[in-house]
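tool=predict chain=A
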Amino acid sequence: MRDRFKADICVTPISAFVAVYLETYGCQMNVNDTEIAWAILQKNGYTRTKEVDEADVILLVTCSVREKAEQAIWNRLQHLKALKARRQQDRLPLRIGILGCMAERLKEEILHREKLVDIVAGPDAYRDLPRLLAVAESGQQAANVLLSLDETYADILPVQTSAGGTTAFVSIMRGCDNMCSYCIVPFTRGRERSRPIASILQEVKMLSDQGVKEVTLLGQNVNSFRDMSEVQFQSAAAPVLSRGFSTVYKAKPGGLRFAHLLDQVSRIDPEMRIRFTSPHPKDFPDEVLQLIQERHNICKQLHLPAQSGSTRVLEAMRRGYTREAYLELVHHVRDSIPGVSLSSDFIVGFCGETEEDHQQTVSLLRKVRYNVGFLFAYSMRQKTRAYHRLQDDVPADVKQRRLQELIAVFREEAARANEAMVGQSQMVLVEGPSKRSASELCGRNDGNIKVIFPDAEIKDAAGCKALVRAQPGDYVLVKVTSASSQTLKGVPLCRTTLACSTA
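tool=predict ok
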């Protein structure tokens, strides 16, 4: 099936100069999927517009992880309904497509609700977009939501769409095998499969040549990466899980692992920062932590999704660890990578969560003191184990109260963590002007925390005698003067390089 799609990718476009408008919702993987979908369409002769009113085709790349994410799409479709009706009156047909996780989960409902949507394509069906659009042009609805065991789009170089080209996402694997009881991802994105390392290195090298200064390696479970494409590594032993962690599946021997990939990617360009997301806490062997500590261009920042601070809730979630094991990992990470910045995900009000369970999560937030947090009220998803086995029994008002309590505690602790940086010098990758003031620049430090500083003339550490103004893609040493829970502010000291900062 996959080979047939590859052979069909260069079909004749439905007509010349068909303008496509792409709109992305949800996670970084969807941003990357948008770039993959556009690369396929561009190769088939489509043009792209940034104005929805100019589009012949509107494609929404969707998220299904929470009910709120899906409701945003239904609301958007109501807005597009009026636009499509006007086009029909003017005899200028408009095709609307739903791509991604929501397409995978709700294909039938999407196609039949008001007959508004013309095409539906799941995350593994983007190669089929030209055919689907050709079918839609004939007046029929078209859908492909087949999940694949091997599709990684390794041979498709995404067309980068991020402003300024300073940062980029690189997908290294797709799908997830963890089967956490609350999570829809295994059902919308399928089983884990990893890209061949050679294709990843080719893409990162291309981005480096284009001047990109930061790459984030992406995957639903990014640090369980396992490239089985090279025969000589297919019998390698499975790596050891983090201490006190387990999985619902058997250990998978063979393949080149995440530590090898991270090592190779970090060698491509010493002036390119490397991040990765989203990992699972179980997959942090010592060689990965040691590599992060040793390489100056691998960011000293880790995302450690806890989801809950209660062992009882973690067991119901099928996370594969206890509160104690998670805290032991946090201590080990901080011992291995001094000064590391930590972020996490938390779900509030999961099935059966008591007030005592909630307070356990509150205490975990205080104990760890994360720099960045992503906190959400639980939203039950069909097909998940929780949907079939558990009761969504925490009232909505209780969920919201607990969520607000967690947010308040997180902000309090994050502010304290960030205030510890006041007086320190931070290496900042400039992204562009601050949204609030044209006289200030905005960037992020190694820990992925936003840093705001004046757009002023500064020295150049490379030895240039003339003063310079920092541009997007420059590294600037900034002395932090104040901090909040989400932002650092400071004064720029000089333009510099990653190599200079570690010399």
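The longest helix spans residues 396-419. The chain is about 35% helix and 20% strand.
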